[in-house]
Design brief:
CATH class: Mainly Alpha
Oligomer: single chain
Number of domains: 1
Shape: globular
Radius of gyration: 15 Å
CATH superfamily: Winged helix-like DNA-binding domain superfamily/Winged helix DNA-binding domain
Largest sheet: 2 strands, antiparallel
């Protein structure tokens, strides 16, 4: 998958993936989506974010998660 809006620059935010060269990391965007379930609140808090930035940040985060299965201890 290609991410046009996600950039990584070792000189910006310690090389963390950011949105469009802004000082706004993908991690912060994902966190903000969780904190502001109402997108209007999110847009007020981060007016520089566009809907496509949010979509790509979520897709980038999902693409970079490991898909591991963990065995849970049986209860009972």
């Amino acid at each position: 998958m290609t991410f046009k809006r996600i950039t990584c620059d070792p000189r910006r935010m310690n090389g963390q993936p950011c949105v469009r060269q802004l000082r706004l990391t993908v991690r912060r965007v994902v966190e903000a989506v969780a904190l502001y379930p109402d997108r209007r609140d999110l847009e007020r808090e981060f007016p520089e974010l566009e809907a496509e930035d949010i979509r790509e940040s979520l897709a980038y985060a999902a693409a970079n998660l490991d898909d591991k299965v963990f065995e849970l201890a049986a209860t009972g």
